[in-house]
């Protein structure tokens, strides 16, 4: 036992030294981590994203000068007018009247040196302000259905008036705008109107007037190739985790996709996608401006405005927004095939989304058509359905869409021009007399 104490001391020293070595090793240890690769999120688009002004479009421009009406539905003049709007400095917006009568509205439209822009739905001023250079911070929480541009004093003062009319709520807001280049404005916006179609005002007792083309409408029946937007693209857009999405074929023309919380159905006969996320349903109020922007951003984020879709309706209580298909400046309607994008907003996200998954391709056939003049249509409507004449909000030329198969079993979209009466966002075909020519193809 002579060396026990020395052995203990040596063992203790060894343990202390070993502890120091381990500590130094831990301090200086640098593990070789693998480089973390960023997850690439696939961007899925069904079309090109659009600017807000391409979706908030009027369906008609109506000019009043020299006691005559001239109108157009062409997108080209509208695009030019919107370009001018962006360059104007708008100021002094104020409420002028909150009990506007129908007769006063008619008078405002028929006043000389004015352009009236007709919209299908109430446009929130706080949304439309994105298309203007507005010099004031506070924008009224209001909306309009017609925008009247009064250029009576532009040549003397470089100033125009903007009259925002809400035909439903009978409100009238006025603002002023400075025009930076009045000569260019007159040359590019006003003077071309002399070559547009002549329109006539159809007055109705104690009602707003209707405005229709004076002469017969020269149009055409078109046949287009139908192009399909693959439903799988919408599956990638609408579901967050594709690994858990299950597919169920219900019939040869219907299938369902679900991840347990949301459902997408595909109607292959009519090319309709219908998506619903039930848990997002909400009855909490949503301001009109926010509802419009949320629905626009949702569709636009995946390029969902794949054709010329324009705002046509909003139901604030139901949180729904609809966008109508237009072709060559005319609205497109159908008894069977859906021609609208419909969204219902929920609690901070989409609740329901319904849309077509076809696109109109190249035109390969054109058949001349001549529709009756607006005056003839009005006269016929007065005689045959005076109630509809009194109740209708608008008389327009549009296309009726049908589908057919070619001899090669190719899907064809047929657009037939017709007169329509529009009331509460619902359309009624007026079946005008049509005079056609021989069919011929377009190269």
UniProtKB/TrEMBL annotation:
<dbReference type="Pfam" id="PF07435">
    <property type="entry name" value="YycH"/>
</dbReference>
<feature type="domain" description="Regulatory protein YycH">
    <location>
        <begin position="5"/>
        <end position="429"/>
    </location>
</feature>
<keyword id="KW-0472">Membrane</keyword>
<dbReference type="InterPro" id="IPR009996">
    <property type="entry name" value="YycH"/>
</dbReference>
<protein>
    <recommendedName>
        <fullName>Regulatory protein YycH domain-containing protein</fullName>
    </recommendedName>
</protein>
<dbReference type="InterPro" id="IPR042274">
    <property type="entry name" value="YycH/YycI_2"/>
</dbReference>
<keyword id="KW-0812">Transmembrane</keyword>
<feature type="transmembrane region" description="Helical">
    <location>
        <begin position="9"/>
        <end position="29"/>
    </location>
</feature>
<keyword id="KW-1133">Transmembrane helix</keyword>
């Amino acid at each position: 036992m002579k060396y026990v104490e020395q052995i203990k001391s040596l063992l203790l020293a060894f343990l202390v030294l070993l502890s120091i070595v381990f500590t130094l090793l831990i301090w200086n240890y640098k593990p070789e981590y693998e480089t973390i690769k960023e997850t690439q999120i696939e961007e899925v688009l069904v079309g090109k994203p659009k600017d807000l002004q391409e979706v908030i479009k009027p369906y008609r421009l109506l000019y009043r000068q020299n006691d005559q009406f001239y109108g157009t539905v062409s997108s080209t003049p509208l695009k030019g007018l919107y370009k001018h709007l962006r360059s104007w400095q708008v100021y002094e917006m104020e409420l002028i009247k909150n009990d506007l009568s129908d007769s006063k509205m008619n008078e405002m439209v028929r006043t000389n040196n004015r352009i009236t822009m007709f919209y299908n739905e109430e446009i929130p001023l706080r949304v439309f302000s994105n298309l203007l250079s507005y010099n004031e911070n506070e924008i009224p929480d209001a909306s309009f259905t017609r925008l009247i541009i009064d250029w009576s004093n532009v040549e003397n003062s470089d100033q125009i008036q903007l009259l925002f009319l809400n035909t439903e709520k009978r409100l009238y807001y006025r603002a002023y705008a400075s025009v930076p280049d009045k000569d260019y404005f007159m040359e590019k916006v006003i003077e071309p109107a002399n070559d547009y179609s002549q329109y006539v005002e159809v007055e109705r007792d104690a009602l707003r007037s209707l405005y229709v083309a004076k002469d017969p409408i020269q149009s055409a029946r078109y046949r287009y190739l139908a192009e399909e937007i693959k439903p799988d693209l919408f599956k990638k857009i609408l579901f967050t985790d594709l690994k858990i999405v299950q597919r169920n074929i219900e019939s040869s023309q219907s299938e369902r996709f679900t991840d347990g919380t949301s459902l997408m159905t595909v109607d292959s006969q009519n090319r309709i996608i219908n998506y619903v996320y039930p848990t997002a349903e909400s009855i909490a109020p949503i301001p009109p401006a926010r509802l419009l922007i949320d629905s626009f951003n949702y569709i636009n984020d995946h390029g969902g405005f794949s054709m010329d879709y324009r705002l046509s309706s909003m139901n604030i209580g139901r949180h729904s927004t609809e966008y109508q298909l237009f072709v060559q400046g005319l609205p497109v309607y159908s008894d069977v095939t859906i021609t609208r994008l419909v969204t219902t907003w929920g609690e901070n996200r989409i609740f329901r989304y319904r849309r077509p998954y076809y696109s109109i391709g190249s035109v390969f056939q054109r058949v001349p058509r001549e529709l009756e003049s607006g005056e003839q249509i009005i006269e016929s409507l007065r005689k045959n359905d005076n109630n509809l004449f009194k109740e209708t909000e608008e008389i327009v030329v549009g296309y009726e869409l049908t589908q057919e198969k070619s001899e090669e079993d190719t899907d064809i979209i047929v657009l037939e021009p017709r007169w329509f009466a529009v009331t509460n966002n619902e359309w009624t075909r007026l079946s005008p007399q049509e005079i056609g020519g021989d069919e011929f193809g377009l190269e």
